[in-house]
């Protein structure tokens, strides 16, 4: 008879999956709204008709994201010393960000933007182990879990290129891409072992790509955007730890939805 223990990170993993689905559904809905608005109001009166001719514009952003670590196993993962380790699972966990925007107009179809922001992240690593009973072939697998939680506040400065379509009425579609350097402003690590010292580097660098829509109103412009970010540097620290041994490389994966007001 098999026995399973409750995984404290499972519910967070489920919630993270639901958040991803929600974020991915937001943009298609906006796309349909934008297409409908563009056809219906193509010849309607334009709000802020000269807004995009300004050389520099400012604004602020509110972001919702779901993020997870992506890991690459080391050779020690398949060594006899770690034969009881089944896997290391990094679930997606939601968070949010607040920031500002400085937009520089290069051309009617092209902008450069800087978006400094503070991002609030929670990451987890769920370690699944086999107990000593599993070494007995007469018994079935019994699993136990250990979880490491990393709560960090990151100061991020995305440098982005924004390529815009033609404006149709009061709607405009765009694509965006660039890089985001980041540094940890503060962090808290909940490590469930008094003998371990799992370290994460304070700096990160990611590449970003996304799409969105500009909606023009009489007094402001609202942009709704979905953006995918992938870390390209190894954020695994140098300090030795039993939790670090099965991991060779670790980077970040984030899906974000932004509401940008200008």
* SSE succession: EHEEEEEEEEEEE
CATH domain class name:
Mainly Beta
Biggest beta sheet attributes: 12 strands, mixed
Find the structural class using helix and strand composition.
mainly beta
Average pLDDT rating: 82
Anisotropy-based shape: elongated
Report the CATH architecture. Answer: Beta Barrel
Number of domains: 1
Q: Return Rg in Å.
A: 23 Å
What does this structure look like?
With 262 residues, the chain is mostly beta strands. It has one domain (3-261): Porin (Beta Barrel), CATH 2.40.160. The chain has one helix and twelve strands; from the N terminus they run βαβββββββββββ. Strands 1, 2, 3, 4, 5, 6, 7, 8, 9, 10, 11 and 12 form a twelve-stranded mixed beta sheet that branches.
Topology, element by element:
Elements: E1 3-4, H1 10-40, E2 56-73, E3 85-89, E4 93-107, E5 110-114, E6 117-130, E7 142-156, E8 159-164, E9 171-191, E10 203-216, E11 221-231, E12 247-261
Parallel strand pairs: 1-7
Antiparallel strand pairs: 2-4, 2-12, 3-6, 4-5, 4-6, 5-8, 6-7, 7-9, 8-9, 9-10, 10-11, 11-12
In short:
This protein is mainly beta.
Note the main attributes of this structure:
262 residues; Porin; 12-stranded mixed β-sheet; 12 strands; 12% helix; elongated; disordered N terminus
């Amino acid at each position: 008879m098999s026995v399973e223990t409750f995984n404290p990170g499972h519910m967070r993993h489920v919630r993270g999956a639901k958040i991803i689905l929600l974020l991915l559904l937001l943009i298609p809905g906006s796309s349909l709204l934008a297409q409908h608005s563009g056809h219906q109001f193509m010849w309607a009166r334009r709000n802020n008709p000269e807004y995009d001719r300004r050389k520099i514009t400012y604004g602020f952003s509110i972001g919702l994201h779901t993020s997870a670590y992506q890991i690459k196993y080391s050779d020690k993962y398949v060594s006899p010393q770690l034969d009881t380790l089944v896997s290391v699972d990094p679930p997606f966990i939601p968070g949010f960000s607040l920031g500002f925007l400085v937009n520089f107009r290069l051309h009617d179809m092209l902008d450069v933007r800087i978006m400094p922001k503070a991002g609030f992240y929670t990451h987890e690593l769920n370690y699944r182990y086999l107990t000593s009973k599993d070494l007995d072939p007469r018994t079935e697998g019994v699993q136990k879990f250990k979880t490491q939680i990393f709560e960090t506040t990151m100061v991020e400065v995305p440098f982005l290129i924004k390529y815009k379509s033609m404006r149709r009425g009061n709607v405009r579609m765009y694509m965006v891409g660039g890089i985001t350097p980041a540094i940890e402003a503060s962090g808290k690590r909940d490590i469930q072992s008094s003998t371990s010292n799992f370290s994460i580097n304070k700096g990160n660098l990611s590449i970003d790509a996304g799409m969105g829509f500009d909606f023009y109103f009489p007094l402001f412009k609202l942009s709704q955007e979905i953006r995918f970010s992938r870390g390209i540097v190894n954020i695994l620290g140098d300090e030795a730890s039993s939790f670090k041994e099965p991991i060779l490389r670790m980077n970040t994966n984030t899906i974000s939805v932004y509401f940008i007001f200008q």
